[in-house]
Design brief:
With 171 residues, this protein is mostly beta strands. Helix content is 8%, strand content 54%.
Amino acid sequence: MAITRTAMVDDDGSGTTGTIINNAWKTELYNQIDAALGGGGAYSEGTWTPGVTGASGGSGQAYANQSGSYVKTGKLVQAVGTFRLSAKGTFTGAVVLNGLPFPAGSSPMGGAIAVSYYELAVPIYFMTGFVQASAGFLKVVKAAGAAYADLAAADLNENSAFTLAITYITA
């Protein structure tokens, strides 16, 4: 890395003179942080599109709205999202939340999520879940009474809505 100095002259009457060090050191520092974090970009942010499907497939889901944003630092992803169905379609297997901005790492049951839900077909007292290892979806578990079970198609209405916050490690 070459550090160069550029002469600075007092051109505004402030009395400041001397030299300015170029910004090459910042680029080098970011590159070293990126390498230490395992590559893949030390920091990025963007949008993603959360949704719902069946663990073994689904079709016909339509949305009144969908939006999400994420921040990724190394392999750590923090994302928030919201969506409302306008048609629930059909599901094969348990209902899962999909569309993660990055695939999950291989650690079993990695990550943590907080889920808010509205307009469900049945009373559910509590809902939580985890990021499915090596996958791009969230496994959701519900508490309806004393038992825990996978979220099922029968639990959803045509206008069910979800808001979620997720933290997980990407591949």
